[in-house]
Amino acid sequence: MPTNQLRNVLLLACCQAIFIGGQTTIFFIGGLIGYELAPDKAFATLPVTTVILGTACMTIPASLYMGRFGRRTGFLTGSVIGATGAIVCSIAISIASFPFFCFGTFLIGFYNAFCQYYRFAVADAAPKDKSARYVSWVLAGGVVAAFLGPQLALWTRDLIPQHTYLGSYLTILCLIMCVMALISFLRIPSLTAEEKAAESRSIFEIMSSKQFVAAAGCGMIAYAVMSLLMTATPLAMLSCNFIDADAGLVIQWHVIGMFGPSFFTGDLINRFGLFRIMFIGVVVMMAAPLLDLQGIAFGNFLGSLLLVGLGWNFVFIGATTLLTRVHRPSERAKTQAANDFLVFGATAVASFLSGALLHNFGWHVVNLVALPLVAIAGVLILWAIMNDRKEEVLAN
Asked: Which of 58, 240, 275, 343 is deepest in the core (most CB within 10 A)?
């Protein structure tokens, strides 16, 4: 691997680790803080939803902004917005304001939108035959987050005794500052004049392609189902008389499942094929809600979130790799923007429904909703496989 590519992969992997560590902290405690501050407990997960909603709203502007000014400038700009959001959240906790807290998490969602492009940034500079491997290596940085995120929330929850979890958000502010320092060393080449001048299809033409439908559809479902179950799990566990340390351990293993396989997912894709690995991911994700439906013991919660994390890894890395095959260099920004807008729009809806379903109908219904969604992803992958084979036959 050339030195500049190695540096970019290492820097982005470190940024990914810090970002996911902070995000895991927010997802873990967001619902708990929401439960304390919200006047209606059905809206307990709204702070988590506003993070994802902010991500969805900023995905298109973030991609277009980076297409114009470059990845490094974009990532630095996103970090400034994220730092502002962490400050707002800290103030909101200190004054016990639920609306202000949701506004702060919404701003953090803007920051998250920029961070979601770490995986595309490394793919942009990678040879096509190595894109899956590089994407998976960057996402592997999230393994650190498995140990950093939940533990960070627990270690810092009483850092300021008068306000539980205020110290956690001040720590998130410090993490974002670390990301800014690392990003300053990033060097991602911009598009050449020839690439910028190349013919570019309309976004509607790109989105109507079969590969885009499969990539975006699977990415949407993988992230939505993961968010649906992960957001509700801590609240469900507390309602079953588990303590927050138990919920933190479950979230920790969930994040290990999400990012641990990334060390070899790219190689598996190259060896066994993209769609095959994605379909295995769907099967694993399907097992998660089925396990939850068997009981409410600690092992059910732990095993389910571990499985949904593993399945998410295979499906999401596969979907990201597939998307890199959809666009030309001149179409990169708008294609990635459209994809992530759809992915995080669906995730925001799932996150909000998570709290409402849990509060009004119970834990079993949350899992029953997840099952048909995962099945749709399986159908999309089978459809993509059939189309891929049909194109091979026509080519011959």
From this structure: 343
The predicted pLDDT at position 372 comes to: 95
Cα distance between residue 387 and residue 394, in whole Å: 11
Confidence band (pLDDT; 50, 70, 90) for 288?
very high
Report field, pTM of the whole predicted structure over 0.90: no
Domain residue ranges of the chain, discontinuous segments joined by +? 3-186+200-395
CA distance 385 to 311: 19
What are the structure tokens assigned to 28, written together? 């873990």
CATH architecture under which domain 3-186+200-395 falls: Up-down Bundle (1.20)
Please compute Rg for the chain using Cα positions: 20
Residues 6+ apart with CB under 8 A from 120: 320, 324, 332, 336
pLDDT for the residue 280 = 96
* Residue 393 burial by Cβ neighbours in a 10 Å radius (0-12, 13-18, 19+): exposed
Residue with tokens 């729009």: 345
Q: Which two tokens stand for residue 184?
A: 């300053």
- Picking from 154, 153, 147, 164, the residue whose alpha carbon sits closest to that of residue 35 is 164
**C-alpha dist (Å) from residue 92 to 21, 172, 175, 209:** 21, 15, 19, 45
